[in-house]
Amino acid sequence: MATTRAPEDAYTAEPFVPEGADLTALRKAAAGCRGCPLHRDATQTVFGAGDAHARVMLVGEQPGDQEDRQGRPFVGPAGKLLDKALAEAGIDPGEAYVTNAVKHFKFTQAEPRGRRIHKAPSLREMTACGPWLAAELAIVEPELIVILGATAGKALLGSSFRVGEARGTVLEREIHGRPERLVPTVHPSSVLRSRDDADRKAAYEGLVADLKVAARTLG
């Protein structure tokens, strides 16, 4: 007897993305996405949030533990640090749109009640989630995309992307059929993982310096 193929086995969110939808309708549709297996273990889809007409879109890797529980991007410690760095760089966090390349939390867990440890999404999972990001870009139409970290960079620019080589520069690329300007930088969570206070201070200042490039590009 033939077995029915589960939607997640196709590794694409495309069938779940409604045509001509606004952000509210997209967010509602994304809540039911089964475009890859990550939805099985995550608490919920974490869609983008912020100003629907934002001049700048910030794209991270994937939701973390707090984001998965609350259903909103960048609400954990890394999000708070990002807001602080944006404000210091001259970008109002309230006027930005924030999202992730992957909309479900991927993690490992040693025991059922144990701490959920972040696990980087695969290129296949990032590609599967690409239609959601493409739809967000088409609606928001940002003047500038800030890439937060290597995984987001790979999702937008390909597997050869290296954040250390491109951070703090203005790139011009075609992304999902649209000409875009992009400024890569590190993910704020990498600042929090710094070994000591001196390293953390230097990493934070580097993040702010990159975001100042984004602020100057916006003018």
Describe the 3D structure:
The chain is an alpha/beta fold and 219 residues long. The protein starts with 22 loop residues before the first helix and ends with a helix. Helix 3 (77-89) packs across helix 8 (197-218). Helix content is 38%, strand content 16%. It is built from 8 helices and 8 strands; from the N terminus they run αββααβββαβααββαα. The mean pLDDT is 95. The strands form 2 sheets. A 6-stranded mixed beta sheet has the order 1-3-2-6-8-7. Strands 4-5 form a two-stranded antiparallel sheet.
- Total number of strands: 8
> Stretches where pLDDT falls below 50 for ≥5 residues?
none
Instruction: Give the overall shape.
Output: globular
In helices, the fraction of residues equals 25-40%
Strand content: 15-25%
How many helices does DSSP assign?
8
Mean of residue pLDDT values:
95
User: Strand sequence of the main sheet, in spatial order?
Assistant: 1-3-2-6-8-7
Sheet with most strands: 6 strands, mixed
- How does the helix and strand content classify structurally? alpha/beta
Give the N-terminus to C-terminus distance in angstroms: 62 Å
The helix/strand series, from N terminus to C terminus, equals HEEHHEEEHEHHEEHH
Q: Radius of gyration in whole Å, from Cα?
A: 17 Å
